[in-house]
Here is the input.
Amino acid sequence: MADAAIAVLAEHGARGLTHRAVDQAAGLSPGTTSNYARTREALLTLTLTRIAELDLAEGAARVAGSGLADDVAQMVHQWIIEPGRRRRFLARLELAFEATRRPELRAAYDEMGRGFRTEAARLLAAAGSAHPERDAWTLIAWVEGTAFYALAGAGGAEVPSLAELRAQVTGLLASLCGDDAGAA
Here is the structure.
């Protein structure tokens, strides 16, 4: 159900995310989604929770064999080109905008973000950052901004290659952590 909600949100935007649309997308009987998520707020939160679960599972499964820069570049590249991850990122953007108008969703969105910043700070500390909490904001802003630019911004006409993304994030990490950060 939550996976169907992600797909509906990515394809039709926040206004298209309804209980009925999720039932249809998931192949469920009418009313099933509203039995699990009674309100629109609950449906939005269910969707956000599933996005966080999928993102965390992917992060935990990622093997840091090539280094932080390569892992980050690959993640962003997959968000841009791989259909399922692309949908999930677009749905996350929709939820981010909804969170600016819904305090309950804002709280859930912020909590999800704290988890990602904590993990980014941990990785940056291991890579040599003298200010990992501060630098986590910078790295996350690059990751999300780059994906946004390629999917919804003016950069959508030309998808950056994996090599371009790797070069960009390697330079960023070098400025945050020192010259060896890309190999960390």
